[in-house]
Design a protein that fits this description.
By secondary structure, this protein is α/β, with parallel strands linked by helices. The chain has 14 helices and 15 strands. It folds into three domains: 4-269, 3-Layer(aba) Sandwich (Aspartate Aminotransferase, domain 2), CATH 3.40.640.10; 273-360, Aspartate Aminotransferase, domain 1, CATH 3.90.1150; 383-443, Molybdopterin biosynthesis moea protein, domain 2. Bound molecules: pyridoxal-5'-phosphate (PLP). Pyridoxal-5'-phosphate binds next to helix 3.
């Protein structure tokens, strides 16, 4: 598989042209990568009007992912989520459907900001009792009953979630398609799923639109992401995908990130799948070793280790600090979880250090308590109305009964406790305290 973007930029850098164009570093600088950092000069194509090297590279990626169309984002899945919602909205407008989305509540905060920008209402599927806020099981049965009652422009789920829980995407897609509703999947954490021995990428399981943060699980630079359009996605999605992305994107995409996506293609077409299978097997062994030692874990995603360490006598934050002292940098922690992300590029020595460090931590008396649940709160107005209203920042202790206006009042990995437009009740205050939130913005009276 070729690398047209990398080839073009390398040739340009070696050609010694006088750079009478942006960026201002003119190809030299302290980072050592400046020579490869160009802008949309002649021959370099245009990211959201891709007809040359970028389109060729995107088509390579589409073939790898089995997509009808794959588009690059140099601004993460966040940009792709805004574009997915816009595409679903445009289709809804054409069909006379309401601007209303049905979504699993454990969504990344970008869903909230995108809904505010596009004035989309969200009906939520809330977590089951005991799931906390980060997990939200959406079964095909639940989805069927919701779609039978209301008309929606699309269904939106997050799979895998931050803790590595995977939804039954095939089952959910079947229900959506039976109702003529597109399925949008935030697959920010699951780009690699396509390359496992058993392909479990959402696109392969029937999603119509799907965003992948390439940078989270593939060997790509931070910011690199894909927007994938499914083979049988509704008609306007592929045709409008470029304008959808460009509506929200910078007009100066990073060519370092584009090269990173381009360079990933031959890697993914090569031995990445074998490396991934070996890594998944190694991660499964480590998971078992930790369980045999007394640790408990959650989630079924093969490349994530999500420890729930309270029964072992530690909070997630305790373990995070202890591993940090051993030179092990973790992905995420909160009182209940510690999330570790190995990957095919991690050397065996990394697994061994992690294993040794975790096994050296002695068990203690179990910490009692589980993450708080939040019963569905009262919705007072739309996310857009709340976020664009006059607002005041207050200590949370003064917020009982007020309406949230914050784009993000969530628990650590950017999952909402409350969405803007919802009333702050005692349960919500309890959750704010649990996750250490001290201040929030509320709608002015
Ligand atoms: C579930 C989920 N969706 C979307 C995003 C946004 O992805 P990106 O950072 O690539 O913009 C994140 C970021 O952590 C995430 O965890």
């Amino acid at each position: 598989m070729n690398t047209p973007i990398c080839d073009f930029v390398r040739q340009y850098a070696q050609g010694g042209a006088v750079r009478m164009h942006m960026p201002g570093h003119k190809g030299t600088g302290p980072l050592g990568v400046e020579a490869l950092d160009i802008t949309e000069i002649a021959g370099a194509d245009e990211l959201y009007h891709a007809r040359g090297i970028i389109r060729e590279s995107e088509d390579n990626a589409a073939a790898l992912f089995g997509a009808r169309r794959t588009l690059y984002s140099a601004e993460g899945s966040s940009l792709c989520i805004r574009a997915m919602l816009y595409l679903a909205l445009i289709r809804a407008r054409r069909l006379g459907l309401p601007a209303r989305l049905l979504a699993g509540r454990n969504a990344h905060k970008t869903l909230m900001t995108a809904s505010a920008l596009l004035d989309i209402d969200i009906d939520w599927i809330f977590p089951r009792p005991g799931e906390g806020l980060l997990r939200c099981t959406v079964s095909p049965q639940t989805l069927e009953s919701r779609l039978a009652r209301e008309r929606y422009m699309a269904v939106y789920i997050t799979s895998p979630d931050y803790l590595g829980n995977m939804a039954d995407v095939a089952g959910l897609a079947a229900v959506c398609h039976a109702h003529g509703v597109p399925l949008l999947v935030d697959n920010a954490h699951g780009a690699y799923l396509r390359f496992l021995p058993r392909d479990s990428h959402p696109l392969s399981l029937g999603a119509d639109l799907c965003c992948d943060s390439a940078h989270k699980t593939l060997p790509c630079l931070t910011g690199a992401a894909y927007l994938h359009i499914g083979q049988s996605a509704p008609e306007p999605f592929a045709a409008l995908a470029e304008p959808a992305l460009s509506l929200f994107a910078s007009t100066s995409p990073s060519y370092l990130i584009l090269q990173s996506l381009d360079a990933a293609n031959p890697c993914l077409a090569g031995d990445f799948g074998e490396r991934l299978a070996a890594c998944a097997a190694r991660t499964a062994i480590l998971r078992e070793t930790l369980q045999n030692h007394g640790y408990t874990l959650t989630g079924d995603e093969p490349m994530k280790l999500a420890l729930t360490p309270k029964p072992y006598g530690y909070t997630g934050d305790d373990l995070h600090a202890l591993l940090g002292q051993q030179g092990i940098a973790c992905e995420f922690s909160d009182p209940d979880h510690l999330v570790l992300m190995p990957g095919p590029m991690l050397p065996e020595a990394g697994y061994q250090r992690l294993e040794r460090a975790l096994l050296d931590i002695p068990p203690r008396a179990a910490i009692v308590g589980s993450p708080p649940d939040l019963p569905p709160p009262e919705r007072v107005c739309s996310i857009r109305q709340a976020m664009l209203s006059p607002q005041a920042a207050l200590p949370v202790s003064q917020c009982l009964g007020r309406v949230l206006a914050d784009a993000h009042m969530g628990c650590p990995p950017a999952v909402p406790i409350l969405a803007a437009g919802e009333r702050i009740n005692a349960d919500a205050l309890n959750c704010f305290a649990y996750y250490g939130r001290e201040e929030c913005r509320v709608m002015a009276p």
